Amino acid sequence: MGLFSKNRGTSTTQGSGTQRTNPQITPMSQEDIQTSLQSVAEGGIPLTAKKRLEGQTGSDRPFTSTLSTSEFLALSSVGLVPISQVMGSSVYQIGYQPLPLGFSQGMAMGSLIQPQLLSVQTEALNRCRDLALSRLADEARAVGADGVLAVKITSGSVDFGTNVISTSISGTAFRYPDSLKPKSKSYGLGLTNLSGAEVVQLVSHGYLPVGLLASVVVYFAPIPYLPLGSPAGPSIFGGGGSWGGNFEISSLSQALRYTQHVVRSSVKEQAERVGADGIVGMDLTTGSAPIGEESTRAVYFTSSVYATAIKRAPSPVDAKPVDISLDLGT
What we know:
The chain is an alpha+beta fold. It is 26% helix and 32% strand.
């Protein structure tokens, strides 16, 4: 991360007569490498990112963004100014997560084992995302942004290690017009997973995004012991196909619902802490993975949610609401 930097390179003349600069990648000095690594270790951004952002602060510099043409024009209609594409990332090692007492990959003691939240995995996933988000926010502040819209979050495991995860986040930093810029610090940095079109709709109706809300939880749920002759037959333990009747596995349904309850409660608490008037754009996803060597003995349930906290604008917005039916790049 950040071990190389660009210099100005050489200029060439294309057939049209325009000048094109070919950037050259040069190794960073050992001093710069250590400075960059120290910044990352403290939760900050690499030195190369700081230098890249310095070139985005001047009013005479072209901005970079993920906006479509329609979104850019829509943002202009309410006075929002795109500044730069900003990013954040983190690679994180998950520590040892003990499974409940009495459970092994090949044996489960039926109803004696209770479902439980896997705290080590849950903490690691949330911490990895928070580090990436904080670095995106640092980049946004470095260019003097009031917020970041269309925030996209990509998370997953990596191929080079065991229990190593990564999170990458990007979005478009923007500024409010002076008439709309909040003077109270309670509004904070307006990170949002809403698209440019949705932010335009929000602002034109008198609301501002005041923060990206996020939460993830990993939950362990053992497969319930079902005696022979039960409606499920042996198929619930894997293999053999299904020859039993239809029925709900209520204990697993309850476990999945619990994970959804935890993440939704978490984002609600986050919204209350920033003094939000409401939550929009909630994106709730769930997943599962079986546990067991020869047959499924338990299930990992994972639920994650992203949403945007909103608050009424401090002053009326002098803009005509944009028709959501228009093509705004959604």
